[in-house]
Amino acid sequence: MRKYWAIAVMICLSASLLMGCGGSGGGDKNVGAQSKAKEQAVVQQQSEAKAEKAQAKEQADQKVTEELPSQTDGYAIFVRDANSKEPLSGVKVQFCSDTMCMMGVTDSTGVAVFKMDPGNYEAHILKPPAGYQKSSETAALTADDKTAVFGLLKEGEELKAADAADGTDAAAEETGEKKH
Asked: For residue 77, which of 164, 175, 170, 178 has the smallest C-alpha distance?
């Protein structure tokens, strides 16, 4: 009878070692595999979150582009928050040729449209909305390039690192817009 008990104990110990329980070598492999699986799951979640964020940004940029008037409607000056990319309404924009200047105000979509004959023009922010910094930037517009985008910073705010690193507006680049 002792012989059968000894065989049964040996089978149990062998099985536990093979399954990673109770032995020194098998358990480490199992823990490593579990850790790697968790790490892969976290990476997958981060990748999915980045993809969702990129898709949301693309949809927002597409909406902004769709809201801009067509090139045949005249010259469009789009003004938005430099960091959040939200359109800014009520911004006074000056639009000038060599002989005259006009003033316009952005609407709820952040656009001021100037219906002018094709030519060379300059635009700049005449007066930012309350709570935003003044901008001294100007945009040159031509018969072939009738759209300009201005990004305004809130008072006391700086441009986010992603846009400040190269001095460009990533969202404007993606939609083919010109940032000023």
From this structure: 178
